[in-house]
Amino acid sequence: MRLYEYEAKQLLARAGFSLPVQYGVADRIAAAEKLPLQFPVMVKAQVLIGGRGKAGGIRKAENKSALRGAVKEVLAARISGHAVERVLLEAAVPIERAFYLGVAMNPVTCGNTLIVGLDGGVDIEEAARKRPDSLFRAELPLDGGTLPPALRRDLERFLAAGVESKPVRAALAEACAQLFQAFVKYDCTLLEINPLVQSGPGLMAADAKAVLDNNALYRQSELLSALGIAGKRHDVSEPTAREQRASKAGFAYVDLLPEDAQRESGRHYVGLVPGGAGYGIFSIDEVQNIGGRIRKHCFVPLNFMDSGGGPTREAVKEMFALILDHPLVDVIVTSRFGGISSCDIYIQGLVACLRERAATGARVVPIHGRMVGTDLPAARAFLEQARQQTPGPLAQLHLAVGNERIMAEAIREGLTESLRQSEGAWR
Questions:
Q1: Which residue has the higher pLDDT, 395 or 371?
Q2: Does residue 374 share a domain with residue 339?
Q3: Cβ-count burial of 427 within 10 angstroms (0-12 exposed, 13-18 middle, 19+ buried)?
Q4: What is the C-alpha separation between 330 and 335, in angstroms, rounded?
Q5: Do residues 351 and 386 make contact, with C-beta atoms less than 8 angstroms apart?
Q6: Which of 303, 299, 287, 300 is nearest to 255 (CA)?
Q7: Whole-number pLDDT of residue 137
Q8: Average pLDDT over residues 41-46
Q9: Range with top average pLDDT, 14-23, 41-50, 283-292
Q10: How would residue 426 be classed by pLDDT, with cut points 50, 70 and 90?
Q11: Residues 378, 264 share a domain
């Protein structure tokens, strides 16, 4: 779970780091002007993604007049497609030198990695590419929260070669120890200060990024309460409208494209309605795999979805309605291996969705898939009866019920047929 910058700085303050004076967070100009400010002031967009500076999300205001313009500009900015709803106002500080400091979980080793950079305020990837000798990187122990003596000696040798001031070197080494201790204490998967600035005699965290382990949030109730966070937050940024809609309906959903993504010529967009998380991941991979064999760089998966165990008929109905309402969707791939939950309920929800859309004139695209598992005889009987009663609304439903066809074949059929039907529109 990602924290906003002002929240991450509160975490760092608890760990003993010095910060620029924090005036507060505001969601409009009037609220910003009421804060006890001393100029110059930094106005910083509060979003859960990077790239703020390049997108106009950070401004410096030298006086009250400039403050109004800065707050207005930052609140109007969009950072990687996401609106800015709040800004942090903090004191601008003189910077003699900037460093990078970070601890991150290493997904390859499942361990933790300490990274120290002599060039702060830039992309760490760029620094590694241009000046690899300016970075110190070391694997950290999986337990505790204390830097091993040998690692600390290596770190001190690295700092001695790149930092003249002995007090600054000592402060940097201590900051690394503090950061790792906080990383472990607060169950982080990433804790980063960029830049950590030398301002006067000490070091100060001018920016901060923190990601907490979702699986350990139950251990961080005191921290979350102090930060005013009531529950689990969306992993990447503020949820899209479709993600919010899915959350209210009680199932997991993630958009794989930006909310405002536009149709690209020659692309075919595939919505996914799987029965579970495993099938959801499999479906994304198979659309890319099978679709690439049919026509390279043509088929684009739109989403990840997980119905969870035992969804109701209404939940299944909403799952299909959500994807059918997606403005880009050309075809839907659906799959169900009904072990925990019933195939019968799943098909009832699907049929109810199609019938309702037919009655209201809402858009329907071809739906291809496979259904096996619990209550299969009842599911098959229900579908056969539904086709007889309302053949029109189900005309674009191509569902294999049983073990006669594997899921990969259903995906191939759906992609091929949908592409064939749309060829005329692309010419």
A1: 395
A2: yes
A3: exposed
A4: 17
A5: yes
A6: 303
A7: 94
A8: 97
A9: 14-23
A10: very low
A11: yes
